[in-house]
């Protein structure tokens, strides 16, 4: 098997997971370089993952002539610049969501990605690689629930993650609740319906964390969406699930319904005790999407090795961000917005 030599930029909440997967869990990948601003994270890469070279600037890492590909897991505001720099060095690029924070910067990076069509580019919408979502997608494609009429999506982070979110939000701009969190649900809506979102109406508040007002962030948001094919989508995003990490999706079709993770179960265990019969739930995104994070990078390596472009494109990133920004504007302007 050809081995793909990876570098990674960003070793924070998610970068650490990708780094560990590239070093240990993704067949055909070898993590040879890592970049972060934080010395302890670089020491982790060297000592725990055996990464040969670590860097404090992305530009220096890109000068490593042994690299074949780069994974971008830095704050979202750096993504488009780092995509361009990676492509211009001749590397394959896997970038975390969102691809960019503004429509303008994404529209500028797309022609550059297209210009490097011999290199592979993939965006990290990992839910498309989750076993349950793949199972549901196959059922939808096989026509088992008929035509989708409505999708309801919940994406609520655990309240236990608030401290780490505050650090993340202060590091750079997250893009706000809809670009940071709902973007996954927006991608699922597009993926399941094969249709585009054309109109949104969004609301939000910070009742649980009023301190988010000062950061320009939202804790709870909801959006109603109209799709080109007349289906309806309803999204809830939040950062205050006290029970754990709540990602749930419901697909209502003309012939039936599918629900994914109505209770966001950790496993098949039910605990019977003085509190009743209880199902343990996923505590955070690394736990819930552990396998999906491995499978998306395995797919990226496979695309490189077999010389085919990944299914998730920069246009998926553009459309999802356009909808997320429309949600933010709808909330700010208190009106229905055409996408
Ligand atoms: P974080 O704040 O925990 O980590 C950021 C990392 O980037 C740190 O290692 C920091 O040293 C490094 N960094 C910052 N500025 C840099 C620069 N100029 N040059 C090089 N390195 C730099 O952030 P987190 O939560 O890991 O998020 C990173 C990205 O991953 C974001 O775009 C976020 O949207 C995305 N993400 C995606 C998730 C998913 O479900 N697919 C989940 C969590 C994050």
From TrEMBL:
Keyword Magnesium: no
Domain of life: Bacteria
Family matches, as InterPro entries: Gfo/Idh/MocA-like_OxRdtase_N (IPR000683), GFO_IDH_MocA-like_dom (IPR055170), Myo_inos_IolG (IPR030827), NAD(P)-bd_dom_sf (IPR036291)
Pfam families with a match to the protein in the record: GFO_IDH_MocA, GFO_IDH_MocA_C3
CC annotations in GO: cytoplasm
PANTHER family cross-referenced by the UniProt entry: BINDING ROSSMANN FOLD OXIDOREDUCTASE, PUTATIVE (AFU_ORTHOLOGUE AFUA_2G10240)-RELATED (PTHR42840:SF3), NAD(P)-BINDING ROSSMANN-FOLD SUPERFAMILY PROTEIN-RELATED (PTHR42840)
Name of the molecule in the record: Myo-inositol 2-dehydrogenase
Source organism per UniProt: Enterococcus phoeniculicola ATCC BAA-412
